[in-house]
Records
---
Amino acid sequence: MRILALTLDLDDTLWPVLPALESADRELDAYLRTHHPDVATRWPIPAMRQLRAQVAAERLDLAHDFTTQRHLTMQRAFAACGLAEAPIEALWEVYFAARNRVQLYADALPALERITARWPVASLTNGNADLERIGIHMHFHCHVCARETGVGKPDARIFEVAAQRLGVAPGDILHVGDDADLDVRGAREAGLRTAWINRERRPWPVRHGAPPDLDLPDLAALADWLEGSQVGV
């Protein structure tokens, strides 16, 4: 298998995303309690989460755009309290700053440094992580996100955009991610090779079709495989 470039998922591949999302909810709630107590009382965290789920269900056209979904959620929360305008920029900064205070898996950064020293890597995500805020943007050739491209994984088009930006044919790109459907099935159907980062060592879910080319416990194992298998390719 010849690999000339990689695309790399972010959330739950480089870091666990749930702790950051929960922290972001708590910090936004604390901000509301200080600056907009009526909104905070009407919309505690569980209710705000339900409102966001309602927005997502109603606005399927925004399935690729988590940022706008959250902006609309904030607007609706304020409107329900009789407030015509929500301070979206201030609210979003509180949420977004906390959402990007992630804790990388111990293997992630050393492996990323090894890999990007030899192969161009594009980040490829449905989420809204900010690589500059996290401090790892310098390791990536480019950043491809669902909000920007208008479609998210597993749609083949987002993988095609990444291949175009890398300047590499899809068959020579290895997509790396944790999600069997969004990452493995999506990339496979777009013509990329696939690596499943399977930290919990789960059996492959056959409902998602053929298994990945690589089933690996972490990114260190990916770096080991790349360095070992690509010599002389």
---
Amino acid sequence: MSRTPSAMLPLGTKAPIFTLLDTTTDKYLSLDELKGVKGTLIMFICNHCPFVKHVNRALSDMGRKFQPLGIQFIAISSNDVENYPQDSPILMKQTALKEKYSFPYLYDESQEVAQAYEATCTPDFFLFDNDLKLVYRGQLDDSRPGNGIPVTGADLDEAMAALIEKRDISNNQKPSIGCNIKWKQ
């Protein structure tokens, strides 16, 4: 199991725009039409990564908690499906249903969106304010597969709560760690 850290895109970066296929609805959706009233969480995930599987339930729970409060969740898979067929759009839809995602699960076939966000691993989290400026990037919490620390979502939860409550978000942010994005050759 590889342990690739986030690249840590600079805070204040404007969210790169995109339009991608939502595998749950088979419709193309843009960031502009998806963005949240108070903020937008963009998550680079995939189906097969043990780090993502470790936090899937927390992602679903957090989506149900924060989406009604104005934070839109958007999941994106950018993996090379030719060499990693378990991350194909058909299986993405199955994963979204199984995990009860309350958010779109988009397919970045060209990998241009992952490159624009400087995403490096799964999961990789990017929280933007209502002006689509980056206010948090990094880990969900300190839990990793096999380290015995329970999944709480504490770091990301605190950042989203602070954004909603208009409190300062700490600049002391730890990188996420997960499987590297599977880049095309």
